[in-house]
Write the structure tokens for this entry.
Amino acid sequence: MPLRPIGYLLFKVYFRLTGIGTEYIPKEGPGIIAPNHVSYADPPLIAAVTPRMLHFIMLHEHYYHPWFHWLFKRLPCIPIRQGRVNAESLKESLQVLEEGKLLCIFPEGGRTQDNKLMRPMPGIAMLALKTEAPVIPAGIIGGFEAYGPHLKFPRPKRITIRFGPPLIFKKEENPSKARLLEVSQEIMGRIGALLEKKEK
């Protein structure tokens, strides 16, 4: 992605952005990056430290925002309606993974308001179980303090993104609701563990 080095440089200077564990991101083939969600800056921050191009799943209302739709429709973004199973969005997401590309999805489905992890949505579990694509958990540390929902302008706080070992789930064509919940909670548990790690 041509703009990635520029974005990384800007974030490196302003947020002292650091990516840890990027070796866990597959160098080729499909993968699902699963970060916690604390600010509007999360997608470009994740993209800046990821060595491959990312396709993002984003909320329908943000994708079609009158001020930014011109930009998002030119980027590898897949709009989805919160709390609904959208067949077209699911199809596009599966196609991205089947083509051996990287997909980024925020399991919580929205930004936290208090810097605590929220209940995960079943979408990420559905994709993981239908494709066996490795799920790489990611913890965004410091992002809430830098540009959480309570802030109108980003602050120059340190942000660290820590990636963890991939999770691979055996393929299931029609997983039950209980199975989807189990998988999504396991993913969130790994994200929570990354957030609790102290920087050396």
